[in-house]
Amino acid sequence: MKVATLDNGTPDGTLVTVSEDLASSARAGLSLQHLLDGWEEAELPDPAAAPFDPGEALAPLPRAPQFLDGSAYLNHVELVRRARGAEMPERLWSDPLMYQGCSAPCLAAQAPILSDPDWGTDFEAEIAVITGPVPQGATRGQAMDAIRLVCLINDISLRLLIPGELSKGFGFVQSKPPTAFSPVAVTPDGLPGWSDGRLSGVLHVDLNAEPFGRADAGVGMQFDFAELIVHAARTRDLPAGTIVGSGTVSNASPEGPGKPVSRGGAGYSCIAEQRMIETIEEGAPKTPFLRPGDQVRIWMEDEAGRLIFGAIEQTVVPA
After folding, report:
1. What's the whole-model pTM score?
2. What are phi and psi of 260, to 5 degrees?
3. Are 121 and 115 in contact (CB under 8 A)?
4. Please, are residues 165 and 177 in contact by the beta-carbon 8 Å criterion?
5. Once rounded to an integer, what is the mean pLDDT over residues 144-156?
6. How many Cβ atoms are within 10 Å of 126's Cβ, its own excluded?
7. CA-CA distance, 153 to 180, in Å (whole number)?
8. Residues linked to residue 6 through DSSP beta bridges, in sequence order
């Protein structure tokens, strides 16, 4: 099943079911949050002949109870920590990194990215799941059963603000603004490449219509989504509508970590990784962070080349 949310003048919008090819939809008469709160009892219409335009969709959950973002791809963690001179603690291989991000508003797929020269604005292409209710101390089985929907996100990061915030000893606030979501979310049972808490398949990232990243989401994920949910629920219940992100999808190329597309590697799902490789190989970064006018596109395809979640397509504008 594929779903999306359209604007109806209310904060949560109205839910629609969407056809496999994203061409048609049918209104469900409730919001996605209402569906998640009563998942077992809900009856949804089959997508009808009403046309569906992904560009008109809001985020699947325009305002979520919470957004928890992990860092499951440790190749990304290692490169970004090296970029700011931080060591890679051994315990990160067994204990997931996670922060609590901005859950309201959740941005639509075509919302602008706000940029300031002093911010170091970057995109981060990720997979995310939306859960039903999860009890405190959940088992792996309970965590898997709670995964209701899967989507793509652009977890926007303001790289030049991060070191100053982390140096205070707390976490991200200003350096992690609202996140953009794919227009469509998909249930795991209808998702090609989904297996045991992971999604395999190429996550495409283009910057200004040029290939930037082609990482496989199923490769290099140290912690699957069930493990991330179990970690998040250790000390609290997770309400229905909790969004859990994978962290930036990142593959280590056979030629070395993060080699660019032009060299036969998987490329990058964020600018920070490319800048780190440039620093390692050439002594200094060359690729600039996002500037007004830049365009970012993030998407995944099925075996027939059709968009699975629609596409995140954002343009950078001055803050």
Report:
1. 0.95
2. -70, 165
3. yes
4. no
5. 98
6. 27
7. 6
8. 14, 57
What is the band of 178 on the pLDDT scale with cuts at 50, 70, 90?
Answer: very high
| Contact of 53 with 226, CB cutoff 8 Å | no
* pLDDT value at residue 175: 96
Q: What is the mean pLDDT of residues 176-187?
A: 98
The predicted structure's pLDDT at residue 255: 67
Say if CB 258 and CB 248 are below 8 A apart.
no
CA atoms within 13 A on the CB side of 319: 12
Q: Report the alpha-carbon distance of residue 112 to residue 114 in Å, rounded.
A: 6
What CA–CA distance (Å, rounded) separates 253 from 259?
A: 6
pLDDT interval class at 257 (50, 70, 90): low
Amino acid occupying residue 244: V
* Cα 5 from Cα 304, distance rounded (Å): 25
| DSSP code string of 210-236 | EEEEEEETTSSBSS-HHHHHHHHTSSS
Angle (CA) 189-194-199 rounded to 5° is: 140
Tokens 């596409």 belong to residue: 311
Taking a C-beta distance cutoff of 8 angstroms, is the pair 103, 280 a contact? no
195, containing H or E segment: strand 194-195
- Residue-wise pLDDT for 216-250, tens only, equals 999 999 999 999 999 999 999 999 999 999 999 99
Containing 77, the helix (H) or strand (E) segment is helix 74-83
DSSP output for 227-263: HHHHHHTSSS-B-TT-EEE------EETTEET--GGG
DSSP 8-state code for residue 317:
E
